[in-house]
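Q: Sequence in, structure out?
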Amino acid sequence: MDLTKLTLADLQRGWTLVEQRPSCLYCELTWPAGTAATTIQQHLATAHGGALTALIDTDSRYNTLTAKQRDLLKAFATGIKDRELAEQTGVSAATIRHQKFTFREKAKQAKLYLATYQAVFAQTDPHERLLDVPQHPQDPDDRWLITEDESAKILQRYFDFTHDPLQLKRWPKKQKAVIVILTRIIDEIPAHQQFTEPQINAYLRPIYFDYPMVRRFLIEYHFLQRTPDGTAYWRTIPTRKD
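A: Exactly. Output:
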């Protein structure tokens, strides 16, 4: 889930538009343009327990809610009375009211922070903006702290942009350059789709003669994911490293 490219409305409803097609935020499912919202909501309810539950339980390093907080939020969403929830959880009604107050205060803090962040970084210089990177099972290290300006210079050095299709002139030795190269190559593979290995090879073969190596690096650096048996490949959703 790329939070930088989603609106609050997208997050709340559980889907977004990708090339005018509704796309589920929690799996690879997409629907034809014009699909009824009720169809999408049915999928979210059946596959993910509903948009709200999926949002509260989002598997993301940015989701810092504890298990107790998640349970409370789900309970509050049902409209349950404070006294009844207190009885169910074995605490006082005053404790439940305090939890609600705490959630409201955190929301106010987040709103002010977001407004400040957007005002400061909306027009950030390309020398400072960081490159989008794929999601990782753990926080990426300093190799991934690459500005858009650095990226542009590396791309000009290693790619032949006069050739159609895109061609890589040589494979870089430095890891930052490798990451930038992979960031550009992955754009040649459509997002929100699954592919067989021969289909992935067909995208990579025109770019560089050692396309199996490129495919291996795309997986190693988490730009591509695949099933354990290697029968299906798909692009990893990028995240913003700010």
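Strands lie at 15-18, 21-24, 132-134, 159-160, 167-168, 224-226, 233-235, 238-240.
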